[in-house]
Amino acid sequence: MQSTYSHAPLASSSGARLRHRVEKRLRTLHAAGLARTITDLDMIGPVTARSRSGQIYTVFSSNNYLGLTHHPKVLQAAADALIKGGTSSTGSRLISGGIARGSDLEKKLARFKGCEAALLFNTGYLANLGALYTLLKKGDLVFSDELNHASIIDGCRISGAEVIVYRHNDMTDLEQKLAAYASNQTAVKLIVTDGVFSMDGDLCRLPELAALKNRYGTLLMVDDAHAEGVIGPGGRGTEAYFGLQGTIDIQTGTLSKSLASEGGYVASSKEIIAYLTCRARPFVFSTFISPHDTAAAYAALQVLQEEGPILMKTLREHTRFMREGLHTLKLPVLPGITPLIPIIVGSVERAAAIDAFLKERGILLSAIRPPSVPMGTARLRLTLSAAHTKPQLQQVLSLLKEAWQQIP
Ligand SMILES: *Cc1c(COP(=O)(O)O)cnc(C)c1O
């Protein structure tokens, strides 16, 4: 006899249909080498991970650009906040989760980005989603770079605005598309782009975007997730890098990369932020980040201001060394200036084989495959941190050379 309480998921006829669908899709993913699994790891240092079995790895695929996850001041601030504030913010920011440090962090972020105000979200993903679908509506036009982060793509879709995708960093294509819609004088028009592209590591063309924005009367939104702490004076990101302060209408970013925490933010005018505070559903209906997340990001931003120049100098030197080394080895690296260095492998199988080769030798440099990148462009996305050492960089170069020669 079946117990009333036995767990029998997917037992209904709909369950059978869903099971059939999921099994079929999983089979397709496995056949294409695109099925994913999670590797259990603990980060025991800024660029050091330990597996469940105790294997130690040097990590070349995290976003811990400045190594601040283990900076003594950041750790201390997070620990203090944890002891004083407990393990959870316990509610939405508008209910019980109104951690004071959250408002301090927003003020600091707003200053950092040269904006009037900022609002924190639980992740960078949700910041993009929240900004786009709260501000745009049906009838609006959003011009989106084809390589924009998934969170931008999803936010555009949910907003109901018409999405016009332009070729990656192709300003001629963008201008043609803007011109095609020039007669529409009622829509809110927005150009949206990553500042540093998350899979290619190149920069948006801010000067040209600024000119097009002015010529066609659009707004400009830039996601600086990979730019903060990496480019521009003080690590302030894309606007600062190009010396074009005040060009971007809406800036978004994350606390989870250089800022060594978890969370995301939108920075813009006071009015935009006030409205998002009332109406951005990912903000209103979700428990706020924890006291220790907030404190860690606040401290990381402080450390960036105090020690940023020296950390960023190390990161720049590592970047130059690695990019030159890869160039000398004639590996197919996408050009750029950032510590996010994609080595295009092509086939998913070869990328996976090189990934495995490096892993056996203590290096984590994860293969990135579709749907994160277009078909046929599976890659190793090497990211550097100021916390890496020169010998670690030399080791990864010589292992990459070996892998490239040995793996067909
Ligand atoms: C990582 C990333 C995000 C998401 O940030 P999370 O805080 O990890 O959710 C958004 N946009 C870009 C460009 C990113 O690289």
TrEMBL record:
* Listed cofactors: pyridoxal 5'-phosphate
An example GO biological process term is: biotin biosynthetic process
List UniProt keywords, sorted A-Z.
Biotin biosynthesis, Pyridoxal phosphate, Transferase
Q: Does the record's keyword annotation contain DNA-binding? A: no
Q: Which domain of life is it from?
A: Bacteria
- A Pfam family for this UniProt protein? Aminotran_1_2
**Pathway of action:** Cofactor biosynthesis; biotin biosynthesis
Q: Which segments constitute the Aminotransferase class I/classII large domain?
A: 58-398
**GO terms for molecular function, please?**
8-amino-7-oxononanoate synthase activity; pyridoxal phosphate binding
| EC id | 2.3.1.47
| Reaction(s) this enzyme catalyzes, per UniProt | 6-carboxyhexanoyl-[ACP] + L-alanine + H(+) = (8S)-8-amino-7-oxononanoate + holo-[ACP] + CO2
Its family remark reads:
Belongs to the class-II pyridoxal-phosphate-dependent aminotransferase family. BioF subfamily.
* Subunit structure, as described in the record: Homodimer.
What is the name attached to this protein's record? 8-amino-7-oxononanoate synthase
